[in-house]
Amino acid sequence: MKSEELSFEQAMERLEKITARLEEGDVPLEEALEEYKRGMELSALCHTKLKKAESDLAKIVTKEGEEPFQLDGEE
């Protein structure tokens, strides 16, 4: 399954498995690099999905006539 097809939850689960495996320290260097690269791709995917969810939520809140949704640190 391509990373674009993964749900947020599936991507997080895979990322957690990669993290646990790398933290064990028994992974050969070349394999560790590939796992790290895959983990970074999954992390970026999760970040993108979270940003989209935040944007969608902001649109919903605004449509309902409530105050626009603001993220922490935004003014």
Automatic annotation (TrEMBL):
Transport found in the keyword field: no
GO BP term, pick one: DNA catabolic process
E.C. number(s) listed in UniProt: 3.1.11.6
Keyword field: Cytoplasm, Exonuclease, Hydrolase, Nuclease
Pfam families tied to this protein: Exonuc_VII_S (PF02609)
Catalytic reaction annotation: Exonucleolytic cleavage in either 5'- to 3'- or 3'- to 5'-direction to yield nucleoside 5'-phosphates
Any GO molecular function: exodeoxyribonuclease VII activity
Subcellular location: Cytoplasm
GO cellular component, one term: exodeoxyribonuclease VII complex
Complexes and interactors: Heterooligomer composed of large and small subunits.
NCBIfam families noted in UniProt: xseB (TIGR01280)
Designated name of the protein: Exodeoxyribonuclease 7 small subunit
Species whose genome carries this gene: Domibacillus mangrovi
Lineage of source species: Bacteria, Bacillati, Bacillota, Bacilli, Bacillales
